[in-house]
Amino acid sequence: MCADMDLRDRSFLMKREGVRHGDRLFPLEKYDVVLSEEFPLVPAHWHEEAEFTWIRSGSCVYHIDLCDYPVGEGDVILLPPRVLHSAGSFPESRMVSESFVFHMNFPGASGSDLCSMKYLRPFANREVQFPYVFSSGHSVNPHLRDLMSRLIKLYESQEEGYELLMKSLFLELFYRIWPFRLQKTVSVSSREQSEKLKLVLDYIDLHLESPIAISTLAEICCFSESHFMRFFKTHVGMTCTEYINALRLERAWQLLQSGRYSVIDAAFSSGFHNLSYFYRVFKKKYHMTPKEALTQVE
C-alpha cells in the first residue's frame, strides 16, 4: 500500500512493487491511504513485505487472492508477503486507512531460533493461514487496534529506542493472532488464478515500452481473449487497456519529474509512440501538458 492517494506522488499501478519499504536495517514503512470518488481504486499489486492495516473511517472492498472482503471502520487487515491485493471504494464514499508495510525480517523471520521457525517463517511462507480481516466485532480486534495505535505513536515520535519497542509489538501481533490460525487454506483454484494474474502484471511491467497484445496476455493465462478480458476487469478493477495506459502515464510522469528526460524521451520510454495521443491522455489525467509538467521541475 502507499502514502496518500495522489497518484502523482506514488504509483499504485505496480504489479510486484518495485519499491523498498523502509531500508535494509529498518525494513518498515507507514502509509496513509484515502479512497474517494476522485481516487476510488488501489489497483492489484503485491510485494515481498507483509502488511498490517487499520481502517480508520469509511468503508471499501479489499480484493485479496481474488476474493472480496468488504471492510469498514475499525476493521484490521493482515496480509502475508506476496499476496495479490487491491482495494476499491463504494460510490460516493470515502475510506481512510493507516498501514504498516514491513519485511518479515524485521520481527525476526530470518533467524534460527524457535520463534522464527515455529511462528514467523510459517506465516511468511504461507504455511499457516490466518484470516485476512479481523472485523471490529472479532474478539482479538481491540488488541490489534491497540497495537496499531501504539505502533503509530512510536513511529511518529521516534523517541530513543522506539525501534526496539516497535519490534516487540510486531512480535505481540503474532502472539495475538496465533490462536486464530485457520485449518482451511486458500483454495488451489483461487491461488492458481492469483498466480496467473501476477504473471500478467509482471509481463506488462517488463514490456511497457513495447506494444502489448491482449492475445499475448491471454496466452499467459491459457485463456481465450474474451475470457481474459473479463477476468482482468473483474480482479484489477479496470480494463487491461486502461491499466496499461495508466501505468504508462504514471511512468511518464515519474520520468518527467526526474528532470532527466525530454517530453519525447519520456513518452517513448513509457510506451507512447503517438505523441498527440500522449499529450491528450496526459493532460486529461494530470490537468497539465507534459511540457508544463517538465517546466515545473525546471
UniProtKB/TrEMBL annotation:
Pfam families: AraC_binding, HTH_18. CDD domains: cupin_RmlC-like. InterPro entries: AraC-bd (IPR003313), Homeodomain-like_sf (IPR009057), HTH-like (IPR037923), HTH_AraC (IPR018060), RmlC-like_jellyroll (IPR014710). It comes from the Bacteria. Residues 198-296 form the HTH araC/xylS-type domain. Keywords: DNA-binding, Transcription, Transcription regulation. The keyword Transcription regulation applies. Gene3D superfamilies: Homeodomain-like, Jelly Rolls. SUPFAM superfamilies: Homeodomain-like, Regulatory protein AraC. One of its GO terms (molecular function) is DNA-binding transcription factor activity. The keyword DNA-binding applies. This is HTH-type transcriptional regulator YdeC. It comes from Sellimonas catena.
